[in-house]
Amino acid sequence: MLLKNTWNEFIKILAKPRSYLGVGALTLLIAIIIFAMKADGKSIISFVTASFEQTLTFNGHILNGYLIAFIILQMLIVHVPLLVALVTGDLIAGEAAMGTIRMLATKPISRTNIVLSKFIAGAAYTLFIILWMGFLAIFVSTAIFGTGDVIVLNSDGLVILPEADVLWRFGAGFCVAFLSLLTVSSLSICLSAFAENSIGPIVATMSIIILFTIIGSLDVTVFDSIKPYLFTTHMASWRSFFEDPVPWSAIRESVIILVVHNVVLVTVAVIRFNKKDITS
Amino acid sequence: MRKIAQLFVLLALPLLTSAQTADNIVSKVLTKLNSVKDYKASATIKANIPMIKILPNEATIYFKQKDKFKVESKGITILPKQGFTDINNFLAKKDYIAVINDTVTTGGVKTYLISVIPNSGGGEMILAKLWIDPERSVIMKSQITTKSNGTVTTTYTYGDQVKYGLPSKMVFEIDIKKFKLPKSVAADINKSSAEKKKKAGNKGTITITLTDYAVNKGLSDSIFK
Q1: Which residues 6+ apart lie within 8 Å of A109 measured at CB?
Q2: A and B: number of Cβ contacts within 8 A
Q3: What is the DSSP letter of A242?
Q4: Which residues numbered 134-153 in B keep a CB inside 8 Å of some CB on A?
Q5: Taking the CB of residue A173, how many other CB atoms lie within 10 A of it?
Q6: Residues 45-64 of B with CB under 8 A from A
Q7: How would you class A186 by CB atoms within 10 Å of its CB: exposed for 0-12, middle for 13-18, buried for 19 or more?
Q8: Could you read off the pLDDT of A101-136 as tens digits, one per residue?
Q9: Chain A within 8 Å of B3 (Cβ-Cβ)?
């Protein structure tokens, strides 16, 4: 019954125009980045390497598909959570707003399983978004720009990763990025269980992400104790796979914190939905 | 008045002699370098620069007189901006004053430390210090100071191509004080300011080992396009 209901939930997602809005926006955004890189990529890259190029020269195929894929993946931090929340924030609250929640609750399936099926359907949509992004970022970019070593800029300096050592990093990075977006999905589903219309959970999800991100980026000691437990601190953990050496313990910690967030948020959503008054 | 003039000549004589000798030494080096019309060599490039992490890389280096230079590699390689052809180009112009400063032992070889100062101030180079082995007429060490790129010190080791003045190994020591990361791009929200402020050293080295030289084989200009 859970699987059947999950399938129904997934069909509901597919039937909503907003689901394609996110995919369309993502496609357009990636197309714009690829076009910009094709048109003026070298000057964009030199903006990053300018300080080094006073003393050094970089030789080789710098502007390649893998680098473009990395730049595209960086968008995850800012844009994709909104696209995910746009769909998943509507999953429970949308039913309440349309009045279909009562009919849903009359089905021979527990309320817990209803929430779980919505969570799984939301996870499937998030996975689709990530896979679509991965396809556009890696396959389309490499088809246009070719392959090569990847230059990654972080706060410690430049890391240049050899081409042969890049694909597994993208694979692992996409897995952690999926977990990050799944946390956004769980948060919006959880908030959706408290709301009667879908706008509230979507705006609340984005507000929480913005608030936590600002707290995480503030260099104020009073926040130091809570920063490691904010899920936004770990949303950029996929980037750690592009460090050398890979900080495995930090990634493990991030994965644990994101998984705990997902479990807690879904549990809260289940408890709330079980107690939700759907008769009035 | 005549005595003063004689005294001036007497005092200036060692300097003039020194300058003459320095010119001869530098000319011999230049003659040797100019005997190479073109070359191709395999290179292994190892960069040990505090703010840059890169694995050793293989490359092919092409050079053709006067100043055609190209590095071909499968991956990304880092080379110093100054060092490969700059000395050749600078010395070839013959618009400089060369003065012997000292005799120094470098890498177990007795060398003359010669300061080469450009006559005109329009160029990029401010000063070049060359440690020259007078026996083999090769540069053992160089220190180039430029207007915009700081100082690059290069140590040379020679092998079977010493007759052309071509090194088998070059170690570039570069100044990285000027490296600054663009804040908007390098923003890393997961790292505290204390972590970000971890200071790196001020010097980096790039070691280039050159093998399989093919000298004066007649490289085509199309390689450099």
Answers
A1: A1, A2, A5, A117
A2: 117
A3: G
A4: 148-150, 152
A5: 22
A6: 49-55, 59
A7: buried
A8: 888 888 888 999 999 999 999 999 999 999 999 999
A9: no
List CB contacts (< 8 A) between B177 and chain A.
Answer: none
CB contacts, 8 Å: B145 with chain A: none
For residue B149, tell me if it sits in a domain.
yes
| Confidence check: pLDDT of B26 > 80 | yes
- Report the CATH number at residue B57: 2.50.20.10
- Interface membership of A85 toward B (CB under 8 Å): no
For residue B218, the model assigns a pLDDT of 87
Residue B199 has a pLDDT of 53
pLDDT at res. B9 = 45
For chain A, say whether B16 makes contact (Cβ under 8 Å).
no
Those residues whose C-beta lies under 8 Å from the C-beta of residue A47, and which sit 6 or more positions away, are B182, B185
pLDDT of residue B6: 53
Sign of the dihedral through C-alpha A113, A119, A123, A124? positive
Q: Is residue B5 situated within a structural domain?
A: no
φ, ψ for residue A85, nearest 5 deg: -65, -30
Structural domains of chain B, count = 1
Using one digit for the tens of pLDDT, what is the confidence trace for A204-257?
999 999 999 999 888 888 888 899 999 999 988 999 999 888 999 999 999 999
What residue spans define the domains of chain A? 2-275
What does the block give as tokens for A66? 């893998």
- How many Cβ atoms sit within 10 Å of the Cβ of residue B199? 6
Is position B225 within any domain? Answer: no
**Chain A CB contacts of B55 below 8 Å:** 160, 162
- Cα distance between residue A146 and residue B70, in whole Å: 21
Cα A126 from Cα A26, distance rounded (Å): 13
CB-based burial, A89-115: b 16+ in 10 Å, e otherwise: bbbbbbbbbeeebeebbeeebebbbbb
Q: Which tens digits make up the pLDDT trace of A17-76?
A: 889 988 898 899 899 999 999 998 888 787 777 778 778 888 888 899 999 999 888 876
CA–centroid distance for B172 within its chain: 8
Compute the distance between CA of residue A35 and CA of residue A33 in angstroms, rounded to an integer: 5
Mean per-residue pLDDT of chain A: 89
